[in-house]
């Protein structure tokens, strides 16, 4: 690879084998299936562009030589999104971390800034906060989140990253003989939103900001499972309560995996993990007090406990991470609970699977209703059993976004996104960007639909 490492002028390059191998990985090992499929896939060199001009230069050279390029933020994706399947260059974007400007309600930034740093700067600069962020915000880059994430803390109020208004604009560099720099705005941003860097390299993002709120973390312990589900629903639904996070983690996971945070709860307690505006605590206390046995067991503005992290670092995919620390056989699901039967589906699956699939729900604002993503833990035995469990949900109208697939289609809506595919034809005609992640590109006849898109929309708005 000597030849390649000298092809990029003074752009910083990493060739050390161990480092290159490390930068070829993400959190795909969450899935025993992805672990088997992706272990041992490495890039050849890492390039660390300092600015957009470096990105253009890298893409021009790689296009000319037919070298694949896999873009990387912080490598916290958990579906192998950033794993280079066909070698080549890993393009690490952390150097493009400059905030271009901000004003109340809006920020424009380079993609390489960590989300935590961006949020802190917006709070300080214009009294704003991000609408949503992943639980990895202390490490993850904003570019990696837009290209590889979907939702997170804030989704209980603001919905999904794909919902109109949650991403304003993206500047993208194409991979052509002479790379173009294109500004995508309005609906056009969906061409690269959650496209895994398969059809362009994002070099700037414009995002909406909400007014900053003083949040308090709460753990609410609830003995009854459906009591906890409905209390979570109430907190999520009430427009008069400002919330950033409502998650439910069923017993015994909180006591078994949450260490200091769960010090005050019993093993049979279910936990609601909540971020609430300080002014709304009194209202929440009243609602909690009305539920049999429920109590606020932890409050960040009151309880000084050593070893407790921000509550969002127990939620979303951090729940799985914490479980994995104790039990390497645990994996997880991603199930959409939307539509009129969503709460019945939660109740039924809880009773059917019991401790084989410990319940974990993230409450989401789907626009016309509050529903949930189930990120249930799974006590993994075999792939066949895992597929059987996923089929149980799919066939009952609760679609699974398979977290054990590394392609866009396999993990998402089970069908090709024609808008993103069309943009790839324009922006990456040789198919060199993160190759192998978009089935629609490699296999134009792909028709692996398990859940029709029309159904998904019907379910989400039913
Ligand atoms: C413990 C844990 C918790 C998580 N919680 C959440 C959560 O709450 N919500 C959520 O949505 N996700 C979550 N994730 C997944 C992941 O952390 C986020 O999506 C994160 O924002 C990814 O950022 P990153 O910088 O690490 O991106 P990477 O993992 O480096 O990259 C992600 C994808 O984006 C592409 N990419 C990166 N930068 C660019 C760019 N500039 N231009 C084009 N493509 C690019 C990469 O090629 C890759 O396909 C979690 C993961 C873990 C391990």
Quickly name the level 1 CATH class of the domain at 215-395.
Alpha Beta
Distinct small molecules bound, one entry per kind: flavin-adenine dinucleotide
Q: How many strands, what sense, and barrel or not for the largest sheet?
A: 7 strands, antiparallel
Quote the distance from N terminus to C terminus: 54 Å
Structural class: alpha+beta
Number of strands: 19
Number of H- or I-type helical stretches: 17
Shape label: globular
Q: Detail the poorly predicted runs.
A: 450-462
Using only C-alpha atoms, the radius of gyration works out to 22 Å
Question: Care to give the gist of this entry?
Answer:
The protein has 462 residues and is of the alpha+beta class. It is built from 17 helices and 19 strands. The longest helix has 14 residues, at 52-65.
Structure, described:
- With 462 residues, the protein is of the alpha+beta class.
- Among the domains are: 2-93, Uridine Diphospho-n-acetylenolpyruvylglucosamine Reductase, domain 2; 215-395, Vanillyl-alcohol Oxidase, Chain A, domain 3.
- The protein contains 17 helices and 19 strands.
- The strands form four sheets. It has a seven-stranded antiparallel sheet with strand order 14-11-13-12-17-18-16. Strands 5, 6, 7, 8, 9 and 10 form a six-stranded antiparallel sheet that branches.
- The longest helix is centred in the first third of the chain and has 14 residues, at 52-65.
- It is globular, with a radius of gyration of 22 Å.
- The model is unreliable at 450-462 (pLDDT under 50).
- Flavin-adenine dinucleotide binds next to strand 3, helix 6, strand 10 and helix 11.
């Amino acid at each position: 690879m000597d030849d390649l490492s000298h092809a990029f002028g003074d752009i910083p390059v990493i060739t050390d084998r161990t480092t290159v191998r490390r930068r070829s990985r993400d959190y795909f090992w969450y899935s025993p299936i992805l672990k088997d499929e992706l272990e041992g896939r490495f890039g050849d060199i890492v390039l660390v562009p300092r600015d957009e001009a470096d990105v253009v230069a890298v893409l021009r050279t790689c296009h000319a030589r037919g070298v694949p390029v896999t873009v990387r933020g912080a490598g916290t994706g958990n579906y192998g999104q950033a794993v280079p399947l066909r070698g080549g260059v890993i393009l690490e974007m952390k150097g493009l971390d400059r905030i271009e400007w901000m004003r109340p309600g809006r920020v424009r930034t380079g993609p390489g800034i960590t989300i935590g740093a961006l949020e802190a700067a917006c709070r300080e600069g214009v009294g704003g906060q991000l609408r949503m962020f992943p639980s990895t915000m202390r490490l993850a880059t904003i570019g990696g989140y837009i290209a590889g994430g979907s939702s997170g803390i804030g989704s209980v109020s603001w919905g999904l990253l794909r919902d109109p208004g949650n991403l304003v604009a993206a500047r993208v560099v194409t991979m052509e003989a002479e790379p173009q720099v294109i500004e995508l705005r309005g609906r056009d941003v969906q061409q690269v939103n959650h496209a895994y860097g398969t059809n362009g390299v994002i070099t700037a993002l414009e995002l909406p900001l909400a007014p900053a709120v003083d949040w308090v973390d709460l753990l609410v312990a609830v003995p009854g499972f459906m009591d906890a589900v409905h209390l979570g629903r109430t907190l999520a639904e009430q427009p008069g309560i400002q919330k950033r996070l409502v998650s439910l983690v069923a017993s015994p996971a909180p006591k078994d995996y949450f260490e200091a945070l769960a010090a005050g709860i019993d093993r049979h307690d279910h936990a609601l993990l909540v971020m609430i505006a300080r002014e709304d605590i009194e209202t929440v206390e009243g609602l909690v007090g009305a539920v049999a046995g429920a109590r606020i067991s932890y409050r960040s503005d009151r309880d000084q406990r050593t070893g407790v992290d921000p509550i969002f670092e127990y939620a979303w995919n951090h729940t799985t991470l914490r479980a994995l620390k104790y039990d390497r056989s645990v994996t997880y699901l991603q199930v959409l609970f939307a539509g009129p039967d969503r709460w019945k589906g939660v109740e039924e699956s809880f009773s059917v699977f019991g401790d084989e699939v410990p319940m974990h729900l993230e409450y989401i604002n789907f626009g016309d209703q509050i529903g949930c993503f189930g990120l249930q833990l799974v006590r993994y035995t075999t792939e066949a059993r895992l597929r059987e469990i996923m089929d149980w949900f799919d066939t009952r109208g609760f679609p699974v976004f398979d977290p054990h697939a590394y392609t866009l289609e396999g993990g998402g809506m089970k069908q090709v996104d024609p808008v993103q595919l069309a943009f790839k034809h324009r922006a990456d005609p040789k198919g060199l960007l993160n190759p192998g992640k978009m089935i629609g590109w490699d296999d134009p006849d792909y028709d692996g639909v398990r859940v029709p898109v029309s159904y998904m929309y019907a379910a989400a708005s039913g």
